[in-house]
Every structure is written in structure tokens, then in C-alpha cells.
Amino acid sequence: MWWNHDPGWGGWLMMTIAMGSFWILLAVLVYALLRNGRPESTRSPGAREILQERFARGEIDAEEYQTRLDILTRTSR
Question: CA triplet 59, 61, 63: central angle to 5 degrees?
């Protein structure tokens, strides 16, 4: 195959680098796909989310919800 066109040491070096790069790229791709498949880390809910949940469960009435929401929007600016 390479009888008359010997790639020499440079050709073998490039093939070795290319094959190593291929396997590294494949490993990084598999790692990225597996990592993105995991659920996101648990984060604590924000103040508005807690307020909305409390209102939805009926722990607070509409007036208290609106009052607290107004306070949250004033302080978050």
C-alpha cells in the first residue's frame, strides 16, 4: 500500500495524534451527554416561589399574598 509512498515518521506521528484526538473527543462527548442527562442540582426555592406555594396551599389569603408580593418586588429592585 505504501510501497512507493512511505509516509515516514511524520505520517505515523500524525496518524497517532489523530487517533488519540479522536478517542479523547469521543470520551468528552460521551461525558457531556451523560452529564446533561442528570437532573440539575437541587436548589432552594426563591422567596416568590415560596410565597406562591403558600398561597396555592391556602396558608395565606389573597390580601396577605399581595402585600408580601409588593414588599418583595420593592426590595428586589
Answer: 145
Structural domain boundaries enclosing 20: 8-37
Helices 62-75 and 47-57 sit at what angle, rounded to 10 degrees? Answer: 180
With H, G, I as helix, E, B as strand and everything else as coil, classify residue 28: helix
Alpha helices in 1-77 (DSSP H): 8-36, 47-57, 62-75
Domain count, the chain: 2
- Evaluate if pTM is beyond 0.70: no
25-42 per-position pLDDT tens digit: 999 999 988 887 666 666
